[in-house]
Structure formats: C-alpha cells, structure tokens
Amino acid sequence: MATWMRHFTHFAALDWSGARGPRQRGIALAVASGAAAPALVRPGHVWSRAEILAWIEEAAASRADMLIGFDFSAAFAFADRGAYFPEWAESPADVPALWALVEALAAGDPHYEVGGFLAHPEARRHFRHGRGDVGDLYAPGAGRLRIVEQHQRATRQAASVSNFNLVGAAQVGKASLAGMRLLHRLRGRVPLWPLDPVPATGPLLVEIYTSLAARAAGIAPGRSKIRDGGALDAALAALGSPPVGVTGPVSDHASDALLTAAWLRAIASEAAPWSPAPLSDSLAATEGWTFGII
Known about the structure:
Number of strands: 7
Distance between the termini: 13 Å
Shape: globular
Largest sheet: 5 strands, mixed
Order of helices and strands: EEEHEHHHEEHHEHHHH
Number of helices: 10
Oligomer: single chain
Helix content: 25-40%
Strand content: 5-15%
Strand order of the largest sheet: 3-2-1-4-7
C-alpha cells in the first residue's frame, strides 16, 4: 500500500477511557510543539469525552499541522472471518460503516457510552462481557485479533488483547467503542491514517499504543507505567525530548500522554511507520493500523 509522510509542527497524544460517567480521570491529553518539552492540555482538569471531541474540532477548524494519536482501536478484526460480526446480517462492510452502526445502536447512551450497542442481541454474541457471560460467537481463548495485532505479537513489537474482550484491566473494547462514536462525528472533517489520504496540511488522526512509546524509551515490557516525574524525564531524554520537570508523583495517564506525544514527534519523520509491510488498501478500509507498528 502506497503511503507518504509529511511535516507536522505539533504532536498530540490522547490517553483514552471507556468508563461510564460524564467525566473520566483516565483521559489525559498532551501536546509536543516544535522542539519544546511536551505539555499537558489543561493539567489537573478531569476531561469529558465531549470536551475532547470539541478540542479536536478546534484543531481542525484552525488547520493546525498536528498529528493526533488516540489510544484506542478504530476497528475490530475483519480479515480473519471476512466480517466484523459473522452471522449478523447488518455486519458493516468497512470502518466508517462500523462507526455508524455503533452510533446508531448507542445513540441513546449519554457521555458517548456504548451500553446500547453491547445490549443488542446480535452484538452481544461476539463479545466476552464477564467471566460467566461470553457470547456464543466469541472466539475461544484470547479472542479475534486484527492483522496489526497478530503482526505485533508475532514480531514482539507489542502485546495486545482482543477488542472483543470486555473483561479485565487490559481490555480496550469499551474504550474503542466509545472512541468510534467520536470518530463517527469527526468523519469527513479530520482524516484518519491509513483509512484516508494524508492531507498536505491540517490535522491527521492516527491510532497509537502508549506502550510503544515506553518501549522506545527503553522501558521494559510490562513496566510501561511511569508514576514518577524523574522517571518520566529520563524516558523523555531517551527520546531526545527536553524534560517536563515535574517532581514527585505523576499519574500514569498523564505520563502516558506526555511520553507518547514526544515519541510521535521522534518517529513521525521516519518512513517506516508510514509504510508497514503488511498494510494493504483492504486492511486500511476494514481494520486500520496502529501507527508505529512496522
């Protein structure tokens, strides 16, 4: 699949949450501009998902040359079965249609929650909802994986879990579904790589894993959460970034966002992240890709 990179002046990283409620302490947003140290946007603020959407919309309106990474999955596995939801007549054909289906079924849920989608009898069949509540079409074991997730596991670049799993601390299914509701609203206004062509100017969205930034900074797998200002500055230095200068404790959500913003800046000018070998036009349209997995 042919793709290309371009110049950005700002690099934003969004640590996301799929938890219920109007505001989420698990959301953090950081921006690295120019060569300066990354900085939190509204430090100390407890974000709502609607506020994050508004912030991205403002970036789009200002035509900021910003690469915006979000820490959730833009799609579910498709290539392994030729469908997101086999045996469901309304299973969508591509990523935008998937977002539209999630929105249609969750439209009555407040705060971009997704209970309405997961309660649908056909949707329920594909997810692991609880330890004793597993849909009959949930794949045995770890659950279905996208090609990018299979590839990153095989090459040991990262360890991922199935988005169809909604159980445990590592699950990202609910966060991804909530994120799809935002992506649905941004469709046509902010392009998403690799689904959309990379624009010559303005913002661009990419899917990220914050653990990739931690690994690039030399932090061992399984120990990617940074909760100390000194450790954060050391990790930033490994990425060629100036220090943030925070002393004492720092939330892992804030450190994830800060470190990943610096990491995006460090790798965005490289060719490899924009042209991963397994990526094809059909994958871009149905499953997407995680920026930084090569």
